[in-house]
Write a structure and sequence with these properties.
Largest sheet: 4 strands, antiparallel
Number of strands: 4
Number of helices: 0
Radius of gyration: 21 Å
Strand order of the largest sheet: 1-2-3-4
Shape: flat
Helix content: under 10%
Strand content: 35-45%
Distance between the termini: 69 Å
C-alpha cells in the first residue's frame, strides 16, 4: 500500500459567478508554508461524467512596485 506524507491543507468555497469562465469554487491552500490560491470548475468528460478541473495560482510580487510614500513630501526639500 502506498503511503503519503501530508504537506499542506486548505479549503475551497462556492463562488458567485458573473460569467461562465469564473470558477465555481475558490479558496486557498498552504503547501509547505507557501500559500496558493485554488480555483475549481465543475465540468464533464466527453462521455458526460462529472469532474472538477483544478488550478493553483502562486502570488508573484511585482518587482517594479513604486507604491512608496509619495504623498508625504518629506524628501522634497532634498531634491
Amino acid at each position: 500500500m502506498t503511503k503519503y506524507n501530508q504537506v499542506g491543507k486548505g479549503a475551497a468555497f462556492i463562488r458567485e459567478k458573473t460569467s461562465e469562465k469564473q470558477p465555481d469554487f475558490g479558496g486557498s491552500v498552504t503547501v509547505m508554508d507557501k500559500e496558493f490560491l485554488v480555483s475549481l470548475w465543475k465540468s464533464r468528460t466527453k462521455k458526460g461524467d462529472p469532474y472538477l478541473s483544478i488550478q493553483f495560482s502562486e502570488r508573484i510580487e511585482d518587482e517594479a512596485d513604486t507604491s512608496g510614500d509619495w504623498g508625504s513630501g518629506k524628501d522634497l526639500d532634498k531634491v
